[in-house]
C-alpha cells in the first residue's frame, strides 16, 4: 500500500468517525480462513468493511475505531507470524511494519483483542458493530461489554447496547471515491479484454467448461487473480437459466453463448454479460430477441443520471421489453397495461440493476427512507443488465414460441457522474454488427 492509498483509508475512517459521533467505539472483524477439505482452504476474501476502512486483508483481523473528545484512534489486531507459519506460509511483516503499511495508530497481536477492546469500552456511549456479519459475533461483542463492566470495577458507564454499523458504512460505501473508481475502471478494463478474447476464440466443438477456463486464464494473465463470482458460461438453452452454474455442456454450433463474468482488481469487482453466437453470426430469430434486449439496455442507460431513480432505470428497460414482446406477438394488449400487470415477468424475471463495488452485489439501498425509489447521485456504481429468456419448459407461465430456448442478457457497469453517467465497460462490443465484426477477426 502506498502513502497515498493509506491516506484514502484514513479519510474513510474519519468520515465514519464523524457519523459515529464522540465517545463511541466501533469494532469489525474479518472471518478466519475456512477449510474446504482437510488441510485445504477456500480462497480467502477479507471482510469488505475491514478492507474498506483499513486496506487490511489479513484473516481474522480485528479493526477498532475509538472516537473520543481527543479525536480518532485506530487499532488493528492481527495474527503474528511464528516459526512454524514461516515454514509453511513465508514471513510476515512485523507489527511495526504493518502499522506503517496500513497507516494506523496501533497494531496489536490478535491475542490482545479481547482485553484491549473491553478496556476501551469504558466511558463509551455507543458500541458499533456490523450485526449479522459473522456467526456468533454479536455474542462476542456482548462478552466484551460484560468483561468491561467486570474488570474495571468502577462506576464509569459502558454502552447500554449495541448499534448496527451497517447503515453508516452503507452510506459511505455506496458513493465511490476517486481511488475506488480507479480500481473499478481497472477491473472493468481487464474484464472487457477477457470477454473480447473469448468472442474471438470461441468455436463450435468447445465446451462450456473450456470457455470458463479460458475466461479465467484471460483475466489472470491481465493481473486479476480472483473472479468477482463464479463465471456463468451458458450455451444454447442453458442461457435461459439465470444463474446457470454447471458449465459442462458442449456449445451448440447454431446457438448463442451467454457469458456472465468478471474479475477483481484490488478487491473491486467487475460484472459484465455478453451474449453472442457460437458460430459468429446471429440467426434471424436470435437477432430479433437480441435487439429487444439491446433496446432495453440502451433505454436503461439513458435513464442513468443524477436525480433519476433506481426504479426509473428498471422501468425504462421494462417498457422496451414489453414493446418488443408485443411486436413479436408474444404479448397482446396496451403497453402501459402490460407493464402495470407485469405480464413481462415470465420473460424478464429479474431486476435491471444491482450495486457494484467491493462486492459484486455491493451494499446499497434501493429505497429512500420515505419508501420512494433510491435517487441516483454522483459516485454511485451499479450494473445495467436487462435480459429476455424464452423457455416454456422452465417457466410454465410462458407460452411456447418460435424463440424457444433463446436467452439473452446484456450487462454493463455504470458510474453516475455530475452530468450523466460513465459506462465503465462501454469498450466491450454490444451491437450485433460490432460483435459479428470482432468474431470475424
Amino acid at each position: 500500500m502506498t502513502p497515498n492509498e493509506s491516506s484514502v483509508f484514513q479519510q474513510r475512517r474519519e468520515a465514519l468517525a464523524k457519523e459515529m459521533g464522540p465517545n463511541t467505539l466501533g469494532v469489525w472483524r474479518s472471518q478466519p480462513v475456512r477449510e474446504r477439505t482437510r488441510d485445504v482452504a477456500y480462497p480467502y476474501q477479507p471482510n469488505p468493511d475491514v478492507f474498506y476502512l483499513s486496506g487490511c486483508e489479513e484473516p481474522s483481523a480485528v479493526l477498532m475505531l475509538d472516537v473520543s473528545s481527543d479525536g480518532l484512534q485506530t487499532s488493528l489486531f492481527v495474527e503474528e507470524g511464528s516459526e512454524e507459519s514461516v515454514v509453511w506460509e513465508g514471513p510476515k511483516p512485523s507489527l511495526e511494519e504493518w502499522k506503517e503499511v496500513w497507516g494506523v495508530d496501533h497494531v496489536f497481536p490478535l491475542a490482545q483483542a479481547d482485553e484491549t477492546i473491553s478496556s476501551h469500552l469504558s466511558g463509551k456511549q455507543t458500541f458499533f458493530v456490523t450485526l449479522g456479519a459473522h456467526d456468533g459475533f454479536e455474542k462476542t461483542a456482548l462478552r466484551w461489554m460484560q468483561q468491561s463492566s467486570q474488570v474495571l470495577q468502577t462506576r464509569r458507564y459502558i454502552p447500554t447496547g449495541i448499534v448496527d454499523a451497517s447503515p453508516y458504512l452503507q452510506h459511505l460505501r455506496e458513493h465511490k471515491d476517486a481511488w475506488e473508481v480507479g480500481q473499478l475502471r481497472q477491473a472493468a478494463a481487464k474484464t472487457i479484454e477477457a470477454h473480447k478474447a473469448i468472442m474471438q476464440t470461441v468455436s463450435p466443438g468447445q465446451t462450456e467448461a473450456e470457455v470458463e477456463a479460458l475466461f479465467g486464464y484471460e483475466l489472470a494473465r491481465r493481473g486479476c487473480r480472483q473472479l468477482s463470482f463464479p463465471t456463468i458460461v451458458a450455451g444454447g438453452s442453458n442461457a435461459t437459466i439465470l444463474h446457470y452454474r454447471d458449465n459442462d455442456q458442449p456449445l451448440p454450433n447454431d446457438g448463442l453463448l451467454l457469458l456472465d463474468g468478471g474479475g477483481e482488481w484490488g478487491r473491486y469487482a467487475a460484472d459484465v454479460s455478453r451474449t453472442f453466437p457460437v458460430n459468429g453470426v446471429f440467426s434471424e430469430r436470435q437477432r430479433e430477441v437480441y435487439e429487444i434486449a439491446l433496446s432495453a439496455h440502451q433505454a436503461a442507460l439513458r435513464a442513468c443520471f443524477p436525480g433519476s431513480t433506481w426504479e426509473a432505470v428498471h422501468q425504462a428497460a421494462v417498457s422496451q421489453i414489453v414493446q418488443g414482446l408485443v411486436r413479436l406477438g408474444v404479448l397482446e394488449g396496451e403497453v402501459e397495461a402490460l407493464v402495470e400487470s407485469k405480464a413481462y415477468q415470465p420473460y424478464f424475471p429479474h431486476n435491471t440493476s444491482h450495486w457494484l463495488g467491493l462486492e459484486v452485489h455491493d451494499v446499497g439501498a434501493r429505497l429512500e427512507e420515505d419508501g420512494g425509489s433510491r435517487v441516483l447521485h454522483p459516485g454511485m456504481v451499479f450494473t445495467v443488465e436487462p435480459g429476455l429468456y424464452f423457455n416454456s419448459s422452465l417457466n410454465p407461465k410462458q407460452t411456447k414460441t418460435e424463440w424457444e430456448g433463446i436467452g439473452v442478457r446484456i450487462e454493463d457497469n455504470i458510474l453516475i457522474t455530475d452530468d450523466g453517467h460513465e459506462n465503465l465497460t462501454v469498450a466491450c462490443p454490444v451491437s450485433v454488427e460490432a460483435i459479428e465484426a470482432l468474431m470475424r477477426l
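The first helix runs from residue 3 to 20. The chain has two domains: 3-173, 178-440.
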